[in-house]
Write a structure and sequence with these properties.
This protein has 210 residues and is α/β, with parallel strands linked by helices. The protein is built from nine helices and eight strands. The chain is globular.
Protein backbone atom coordinates (compact mmCIF):
# COMPACT_ATOMS: atom_id res chain seq x y z
CA UNK A 1 0.00 0.00 0.00
CA UNK A 2 1.45 3.33 -1.11
CA UNK A 3 0.15 6.31 0.85
CA UNK A 4 0.44 10.05 1.19
CA UNK A 5 -0.56 11.73 4.45
CA UNK A 6 -1.88 15.27 4.08
CA UNK A 7 -2.88 17.70 6.79
CA UNK A 8 -2.08 21.09 8.26
CA UNK A 9 0.99 21.55 10.49
CA UNK A 10 0.00 20.17 13.87
CA UNK A 11 -2.59 17.77 12.44
CA UNK A 12 -0.58 14.80 13.72
CA UNK A 13 0.75 13.43 10.42
CA UNK A 14 4.07 12.33 11.90
CA UNK A 15 2.40 10.56 14.82
CA UNK A 16 -0.08 8.80 12.54
CA UNK A 17 2.67 7.84 10.09
CA UNK A 18 4.55 6.11 12.93
CA UNK A 19 1.43 4.17 13.90
CA UNK A 20 0.46 3.25 10.34
CA UNK A 21 3.93 2.00 9.40
CA UNK A 22 3.66 -0.54 12.24
CA UNK A 23 0.05 -1.49 11.45
CA UNK A 24 0.67 -1.87 7.71
CA UNK A 25 4.31 -3.05 7.97
CA UNK A 26 5.58 -0.47 5.48
CA UNK A 27 8.20 2.28 5.99
CA UNK A 28 7.50 5.96 6.52
CA UNK A 29 9.45 8.21 4.22
CA UNK A 30 10.03 11.61 5.79
CA UNK A 31 11.69 14.28 3.67
CA UNK A 32 14.07 15.39 6.42
CA UNK A 33 15.15 11.85 7.23
CA UNK A 34 15.81 10.79 3.64
CA UNK A 35 17.72 14.01 2.91
CA UNK A 36 20.01 13.32 5.87
CA UNK A 37 20.36 9.65 4.87
CA UNK A 38 21.19 10.47 1.24
CA UNK A 39 23.80 13.02 2.34
CA UNK A 40 25.33 10.54 4.78
CA UNK A 41 25.39 7.79 2.12
CA UNK A 42 27.06 10.15 -0.34
CA UNK A 43 24.63 9.43 -3.19
CA UNK A 44 24.69 11.69 -6.24
CA UNK A 45 21.39 13.35 -5.28
CA UNK A 46 22.57 13.51 -1.67
CA UNK A 47 25.67 15.44 -2.75
CA UNK A 48 23.49 17.85 -4.73
CA UNK A 49 21.22 18.41 -1.72
CA UNK A 50 24.19 18.97 0.58
CA UNK A 51 25.61 21.63 -1.76
CA UNK A 52 22.36 23.60 -1.64
CA UNK A 53 22.04 23.25 2.14
CA UNK A 54 25.64 24.34 2.76
CA UNK A 55 24.94 27.42 0.62
CA UNK A 56 21.93 28.19 2.82
CA UNK A 57 19.49 27.54 -0.04
CA UNK A 58 16.31 25.48 -0.23
CA UNK A 59 16.82 22.09 -1.87
CA UNK A 60 15.03 22.26 -5.26
CA UNK A 61 12.06 20.02 -5.98
CA UNK A 62 13.90 18.00 -8.64
CA UNK A 63 16.59 17.01 -6.13
CA UNK A 64 14.04 16.07 -3.45
CA UNK A 65 12.01 14.03 -5.97
CA UNK A 66 15.24 12.33 -7.10
CA UNK A 67 16.03 11.32 -3.52
CA UNK A 68 12.47 10.03 -3.01
CA UNK A 69 12.73 8.08 -6.27
CA UNK A 70 15.91 6.39 -5.02
CA UNK A 71 14.37 5.68 -1.62
CA UNK A 72 11.16 4.01 -2.88
CA UNK A 73 13.28 1.73 -5.06
CA UNK A 74 14.85 0.14 -1.96
CA UNK A 75 13.83 -3.37 -0.87
CA UNK A 76 11.85 -2.35 2.22
CA UNK A 77 9.44 -0.37 -0.01
CA UNK A 78 8.42 -3.39 -2.11
CA UNK A 79 5.10 -3.71 -0.26
CA UNK A 80 4.47 0.03 -0.09
CA UNK A 81 5.40 3.18 1.79
CA UNK A 82 3.99 6.25 3.50
CA UNK A 83 5.11 9.70 2.34
CA UNK A 84 5.08 12.29 5.12
CA UNK A 85 5.97 15.88 4.28
CA UNK A 86 5.92 15.53 0.49
CA UNK A 87 4.29 16.68 -1.70
CA UNK A 88 3.77 20.16 -0.31
CA UNK A 89 2.74 21.77 -3.59
CA UNK A 90 0.96 20.91 -6.85
CA UNK A 91 4.32 21.21 -8.63
CA UNK A 92 5.83 18.54 -6.36
CA UNK A 93 2.81 16.27 -6.89
CA UNK A 94 3.17 16.61 -10.66
CA UNK A 95 6.91 15.89 -10.39
CA UNK A 96 6.20 12.72 -8.41
CA UNK A 97 3.84 11.57 -11.15
CA UNK A 98 6.40 12.31 -13.87
CA UNK A 99 8.99 10.32 -11.90
CA UNK A 100 6.62 7.33 -11.88
CA UNK A 101 6.03 7.46 -8.12
CA UNK A 102 2.44 6.36 -7.65
CA UNK A 103 0.00 6.01 -4.75
CA UNK A 104 -3.00 3.88 -3.80
CA UNK A 105 -4.56 6.37 -1.39
CA UNK A 106 -4.12 9.90 -0.13
CA UNK A 107 -5.31 10.45 3.45
CA UNK A 108 -6.17 14.01 4.48
CA UNK A 109 -6.49 14.56 8.23
CA UNK A 110 -9.14 17.25 8.69
CA UNK A 111 -8.77 19.55 11.68
CA UNK A 112 -9.74 23.17 12.31
CA UNK A 113 -7.19 25.97 12.57
CA UNK A 114 -8.56 26.79 16.03
CA UNK A 115 -7.81 23.30 17.35
CA UNK A 116 -4.33 23.40 15.83
CA UNK A 117 -3.60 26.80 17.38
CA UNK A 118 -4.66 25.46 20.78
CA UNK A 119 -2.74 22.22 20.33
CA UNK A 120 0.54 23.73 19.15
CA UNK A 121 0.60 26.79 21.41
CA UNK A 122 0.33 24.43 24.39
CA UNK A 123 3.38 22.39 23.45
CA UNK A 124 6.49 22.56 25.61
CA UNK A 125 9.81 20.73 25.31
CA UNK A 126 12.64 20.21 27.76
CA UNK A 127 15.64 22.25 26.67
CA UNK A 128 17.92 19.58 28.20
CA UNK A 129 16.55 16.13 27.27
CA UNK A 130 13.97 17.06 24.60
CA UNK A 131 10.99 15.41 26.35
CA UNK A 132 7.64 16.71 25.06
CA UNK A 133 4.68 17.99 27.09
CA UNK A 134 1.39 19.78 26.53
CA UNK A 135 -0.06 22.25 29.03
CA UNK A 136 -3.51 20.65 28.72
CA UNK A 137 -3.09 17.11 27.35
CA UNK A 138 0.22 16.03 28.93
CA UNK A 139 1.17 18.59 31.60
CA UNK A 140 4.36 18.23 33.68
CA UNK A 141 3.96 17.44 37.37
CA UNK A 142 5.59 20.77 38.22
CA UNK A 143 4.89 23.78 36.03
CA UNK A 144 7.81 24.59 33.73
CA UNK A 145 9.95 21.66 34.94
CA UNK A 146 10.66 18.40 33.09
CA UNK A 147 9.47 15.27 34.92
CA UNK A 148 12.35 13.22 33.53
CA UNK A 149 15.44 15.32 34.15
CA UNK A 150 14.35 18.49 35.98
CA UNK A 151 15.29 20.65 32.98
CA UNK A 152 13.50 23.87 32.00
CA UNK A 153 10.50 23.54 29.66
CA UNK A 154 10.46 25.95 26.75
CA UNK A 155 8.19 26.81 23.84
CA UNK A 156 9.85 26.21 20.49
CA UNK A 157 9.77 29.03 17.94
CA UNK A 158 7.73 26.76 15.62
CA UNK A 159 5.00 26.53 18.28
CA UNK A 160 4.66 30.25 18.99
CA UNK A 161 1.19 31.56 17.97
CA UNK A 162 2.45 33.93 15.26
CA UNK A 163 4.64 31.21 13.73
CA UNK A 164 1.76 28.70 13.80
CA UNK A 165 -0.56 31.25 12.19
CA UNK A 166 1.95 31.86 9.38
CA UNK A 167 2.51 28.13 8.82
CA UNK A 168 -1.26 27.61 8.56
CA UNK A 169 -1.54 30.42 6.00
CA UNK A 170 1.21 28.79 3.90
CA UNK A 171 -0.55 25.41 4.21
CA UNK A 172 -3.90 26.80 3.01
CA UNK A 173 -2.26 28.60 0.12
CA UNK A 174 0.26 26.01 -1.09
CA UNK A 175 -0.63 22.55 0.23
CA UNK A 176 -4.40 22.41 0.70
CA UNK A 177 -5.00 22.58 -3.10
CA UNK A 178 -3.48 19.07 -3.22
CA UNK A 179 -6.77 17.74 -1.83
CA UNK A 180 -8.57 18.75 -5.03
CA UNK A 181 -5.62 17.51 -7.14
CA UNK A 182 -5.87 14.00 -5.66
CA UNK A 183 -9.68 14.02 -5.42
CA UNK A 184 -9.79 14.40 -9.21
CA UNK A 185 -7.63 11.28 -9.45
CA UNK A 186 -9.99 9.35 -7.17
CA UNK A 187 -7.34 8.89 -4.48
CA UNK A 188 -8.43 11.26 -1.70
CA UNK A 189 -9.89 9.98 1.56
CA UNK A 190 -10.71 12.68 4.13
CA UNK A 191 -10.60 11.64 7.79
CA UNK A 192 -11.87 13.89 10.57
CA UNK A 193 -9.48 14.37 13.47
CA UNK A 194 -10.77 12.45 16.50
CA UNK A 195 -10.53 13.26 20.23
CA UNK A 196 -7.62 10.84 20.70
CA UNK A 197 -4.65 9.69 18.62
CA UNK A 198 -5.86 6.07 18.75
CA UNK A 199 -9.34 7.00 17.50
CA UNK A 200 -7.83 8.99 14.60
CA UNK A 201 -5.67 5.97 13.71
CA UNK A 202 -8.75 3.73 13.73
CA UNK A 203 -10.62 6.18 11.48
CA UNK A 204 -7.70 6.20 9.01
CA UNK A 205 -7.50 2.40 8.95
CA UNK A 206 -11.28 2.20 8.35
CA UNK A 207 -10.91 4.64 5.43
CA UNK A 208 -8.23 2.33 4.03
CA UNK A 209 -10.57 -0.66 4.37
CA UNK A 210 -8.57 -2.22 7.21
Amino acid sequence: MKLILLGAPGAGKGTQADILCKELDIPTISTGNILRAAIKAGTETGKQAEAYMKAGKLVPDEVIIGIIHDRVAEDDCKNGYILDGVPRTIAQAESLEKAGIVFDDVISIEISDEVIMERMSGRRVCEHCGASYHLVAVPPKQEGICDKCGGKLIQRHDDEPETVKHRLEVYHQETEPLKDFYAKRGLLKSVENQPTVAETSEAILRALGR
